[in-house]
Amino acid sequence: MNKRLLIATLIITASMLLSAQEKRDALKNFREGKYKVAIDITLEEIETLPDSSLRAKMDAYTVLLWSLIVEKRYDEAITYGNRAKDLSPYDSRITEALGEAYYFKGSASNALKFFELYTVQAPLGDRIARVYNFMGEIYITQAKYNHADIAFSTALYHAPSVTRWWYRLGYSRELAEDFKGAETAYNKALDLDPSFAEATRALNRIRTR
Length: 209
Known about the structure:
With 209 residues, the chain is mainly alpha-helical. It contains twelve helices and no strands. It has helices at 3-24, 26-31, 35-48, 54-70, 74-87, 92-105, 108-121, 128-141, 145-158, 163-175, 179-192, 197-207. InterPro entries: TPR-like_helical_dom_sf (IPR011990), TPR_2 (IPR013105), TPR_rpt (IPR019734).
Protein backbone atom coordinates (compact mmCIF):
# COMPACT_ATOMS: atom_id res chain seq x y z
CA MET A 1 0.00 0.00 0.00
CA ASN A 2 1.22 3.50 -0.82
CA LYS A 3 2.74 5.08 2.30
CA ARG A 4 0.65 8.24 2.01
CA LEU A 5 -2.50 6.20 1.52
CA LEU A 6 -1.64 4.09 4.57
CA ILE A 7 -1.11 7.18 6.73
CA ALA A 8 -4.35 8.73 5.49
CA THR A 9 -6.23 5.50 6.19
CA LEU A 10 -4.83 5.31 9.71
CA ILE A 11 -5.77 8.93 10.41
CA ILE A 12 -9.32 8.39 9.17
CA THR A 13 -9.66 5.17 11.16
CA ALA A 14 -8.36 6.83 14.32
CA SER A 15 -10.73 9.75 13.86
CA MET A 16 -13.66 7.38 13.42
CA LEU A 17 -12.70 5.46 16.55
CA LEU A 18 -12.33 8.64 18.58
CA SER A 19 -15.65 9.92 17.30
CA ALA A 20 -17.37 6.65 18.15
CA GLN A 21 -15.79 6.63 21.59
CA GLU A 22 -16.96 10.17 22.25
CA LYS A 23 -20.50 9.31 21.16
CA ARG A 24 -20.52 6.35 23.53
CA ASP A 25 -19.30 8.37 26.49
CA ALA A 26 -22.55 9.23 28.24
CA LEU A 27 -20.87 10.62 31.35
CA LYS A 28 -18.76 13.00 29.27
CA ASN A 29 -21.86 14.28 27.51
CA PHE A 30 -23.65 14.67 30.84
CA ARG A 31 -20.76 16.71 32.25
CA GLU A 32 -20.84 18.90 29.15
CA GLY A 33 -24.54 19.58 29.63
CA LYS A 34 -25.62 17.43 26.68
CA TYR A 35 -28.31 15.67 28.67
CA LYS A 36 -30.48 14.49 25.79
CA VAL A 37 -27.44 12.93 24.12
CA ALA A 38 -26.51 11.23 27.39
CA ILE A 39 -30.06 9.88 27.67
CA ASP A 40 -29.95 8.42 24.16
CA ILE A 41 -26.56 6.79 24.78
CA THR A 42 -27.52 5.26 28.11
CA LEU A 43 -30.84 3.93 26.83
CA GLU A 44 -28.98 2.18 24.03
CA GLU A 45 -26.43 0.79 26.49
CA ILE A 46 -29.14 -0.48 28.82
CA GLU A 47 -30.86 -2.17 25.90
CA THR A 48 -27.74 -3.83 24.50
CA LEU A 49 -25.64 -4.65 27.56
CA PRO A 50 -26.26 -8.13 28.98
CA ASP A 51 -27.26 -8.43 32.62
CA SER A 52 -23.93 -10.17 33.18
CA SER A 53 -22.28 -6.77 32.56
CA LEU A 54 -23.95 -5.49 35.71
CA ARG A 55 -21.43 -2.79 36.62
CA ALA A 56 -21.51 -1.20 33.17
CA LYS A 57 -25.29 -1.42 33.11
CA MET A 58 -25.60 0.26 36.50
CA ASP A 59 -23.23 3.01 35.34
CA ALA A 60 -25.55 3.57 32.38
CA TYR A 61 -28.63 3.64 34.61
CA THR A 62 -26.93 6.15 36.92
CA VAL A 63 -26.11 8.64 34.16
CA LEU A 64 -29.57 8.09 32.67
CA LEU A 65 -31.27 9.01 35.95
CA TRP A 66 -29.07 12.06 36.49
CA SER A 67 -29.85 13.26 32.97
CA LEU A 68 -33.59 12.66 33.26
CA ILE A 69 -33.69 14.56 36.55
CA VAL A 70 -31.89 17.56 35.05
CA GLU A 71 -34.38 17.44 32.17
CA LYS A 72 -37.22 17.38 34.75
CA ARG A 73 -38.48 14.05 33.43
CA TYR A 74 -39.13 12.77 36.92
CA ASP A 75 -41.67 10.05 36.11
CA GLU A 76 -39.26 8.45 33.66
CA ALA A 77 -36.44 8.71 36.19
CA ILE A 78 -38.58 6.90 38.76
CA THR A 79 -39.54 4.18 36.28
CA TYR A 80 -35.97 3.49 35.20
CA GLY A 81 -34.70 3.93 38.74
CA ASN A 82 -36.98 1.20 40.04
CA ARG A 83 -35.87 -1.10 37.22
CA ALA A 84 -32.26 -0.43 38.17
CA LYS A 85 -33.08 -1.03 41.83
CA ASP A 86 -34.43 -4.47 40.93
CA LEU A 87 -31.12 -5.30 39.25
CA SER A 88 -28.90 -3.94 42.03
CA PRO A 89 -30.73 -3.04 45.26
CA TYR A 90 -27.58 -1.83 47.02
CA ASP A 91 -26.30 0.61 44.40
CA SER A 92 -26.30 3.84 46.41
CA ARG A 93 -26.18 6.00 43.26
CA ILE A 94 -29.57 4.67 42.19
CA THR A 95 -30.93 5.09 45.71
CA GLU A 96 -29.91 8.75 45.79
CA ALA A 97 -31.19 9.48 42.29
CA LEU A 98 -34.57 7.97 43.12
CA GLY A 99 -34.70 10.18 46.20
CA GLU A 100 -34.11 13.26 44.05
CA ALA A 101 -36.65 12.22 41.43
CA TYR A 102 -39.33 11.76 44.07
CA TYR A 103 -38.29 15.01 45.81
CA PHE A 104 -38.63 17.13 42.68
CA LYS A 105 -41.85 15.36 41.75
CA GLY A 106 -43.23 16.48 45.11
CA SER A 107 -43.46 13.09 46.82
CA ALA A 108 -41.72 13.93 50.09
CA SER A 109 -42.42 10.64 51.87
CA ASN A 110 -40.94 8.54 49.06
CA ALA A 111 -38.01 10.91 48.70
CA LEU A 112 -37.24 10.73 52.40
CA LYS A 113 -37.33 6.93 52.32
CA PHE A 114 -34.63 6.80 49.65
CA PHE A 115 -32.55 9.59 51.18
CA GLU A 116 -32.54 7.81 54.54
CA LEU A 117 -31.53 4.59 52.80
CA TYR A 118 -28.67 6.42 51.07
CA THR A 119 -27.29 7.59 54.42
CA VAL A 120 -27.09 3.92 55.43
CA GLN A 121 -25.69 2.63 52.14
CA ALA A 122 -23.16 5.43 51.63
CA PRO A 123 -22.58 7.41 54.86
CA LEU A 124 -19.51 9.02 53.27
CA GLY A 125 -20.82 8.99 49.70
CA ASP A 126 -20.18 11.70 47.14
CA ARG A 127 -23.70 13.06 47.55
CA ILE A 128 -24.11 12.71 51.30
CA ALA A 129 -24.12 16.47 51.98
CA ARG A 130 -26.65 17.05 49.21
CA VAL A 131 -28.85 14.28 50.60
CA TYR A 132 -28.88 15.72 54.12
CA ASN A 133 -29.79 19.11 52.68
CA PHE A 134 -32.78 17.61 50.88
CA MET A 135 -33.78 15.86 54.10
CA GLY A 136 -33.63 19.17 55.94
CA GLU A 137 -35.94 20.78 53.41
CA ILE A 138 -38.41 17.90 53.72
CA TYR A 139 -38.40 18.09 57.51
CA ILE A 140 -39.21 21.82 57.35
CA THR A 141 -42.29 21.08 55.24
CA GLN A 142 -43.28 18.46 57.82
CA ALA A 143 -42.80 20.96 60.67
CA LYS A 144 -40.10 18.70 62.17
CA TYR A 145 -37.77 21.59 62.87
CA ASN A 146 -35.38 19.79 65.21
CA HIS A 147 -34.98 17.04 62.61
CA ALA A 148 -34.31 19.74 60.03
CA ASP A 149 -31.68 21.28 62.31
CA ILE A 150 -29.88 17.93 62.56
CA ALA A 151 -30.10 17.32 58.81
CA PHE A 152 -28.79 20.76 57.81
CA SER A 153 -26.07 20.58 60.48
CA THR A 154 -24.94 17.24 59.08
CA ALA A 155 -24.97 18.58 55.53
CA LEU A 156 -22.78 21.46 56.69
CA TYR A 157 -20.44 19.10 58.52
CA HIS A 158 -19.68 17.57 55.12
CA ALA A 159 -19.81 20.84 53.14
CA PRO A 160 -19.29 23.81 55.49
CA SER A 161 -18.88 26.45 52.79
CA VAL A 162 -22.38 26.29 51.31
CA THR A 163 -23.83 29.66 52.26
CA ARG A 164 -27.45 28.88 51.58
CA TRP A 165 -27.41 25.81 53.79
CA TRP A 166 -26.32 27.96 56.74
CA TYR A 167 -29.27 30.22 55.99
CA ARG A 168 -31.66 27.26 55.88
CA LEU A 169 -30.20 25.94 59.14
CA GLY A 170 -30.90 29.34 60.68
CA TYR A 171 -34.43 29.28 59.32
CA SER A 172 -35.14 25.83 60.78
CA ARG A 173 -33.88 27.05 64.15
CA GLU A 174 -35.96 30.20 63.91
CA LEU A 175 -39.06 28.09 63.26
CA ALA A 176 -38.16 26.00 66.32
CA GLU A 177 -37.88 29.29 68.28
CA ASP A 178 -34.19 28.71 68.92
CA PHE A 179 -33.40 32.33 68.14
CA LYS A 180 -29.86 32.30 69.50
CA GLY A 181 -28.98 29.29 67.36
CA ALA A 182 -30.70 30.89 64.38
CA GLU A 183 -28.67 34.06 64.82
CA THR A 184 -25.45 32.03 64.88
CA ALA A 185 -26.35 30.28 61.62
CA TYR A 186 -27.47 33.47 59.88
CA ASN A 187 -24.24 35.19 60.92
CA LYS A 188 -22.25 32.29 59.49
CA ALA A 189 -24.08 32.68 56.19
CA LEU A 190 -23.17 36.36 56.17
CA ASP A 191 -19.56 35.59 57.05
CA LEU A 192 -19.42 33.51 53.88
CA ASP A 193 -21.38 36.01 51.78
CA PRO A 194 -21.91 39.50 53.26
CA SER A 195 -24.27 40.36 50.39
CA PHE A 196 -26.70 37.55 51.21
CA ALA A 197 -29.82 39.69 51.61
CA GLU A 198 -32.08 36.91 52.90
CA ALA A 199 -29.78 36.27 55.85
CA THR A 200 -29.61 39.99 56.62
CA ARG A 201 -33.40 40.27 56.63
CA ALA A 202 -33.66 37.16 58.80
CA LEU A 203 -31.25 38.62 61.36
CA ASN A 204 -33.21 41.86 61.49
CA ARG A 205 -36.41 39.88 61.89
CA ILE A 206 -35.29 37.84 64.90
CA ARG A 207 -33.58 40.82 66.56
CA THR A 208 -36.85 42.76 66.59
CA ARG A 209 -38.81 40.00 68.33
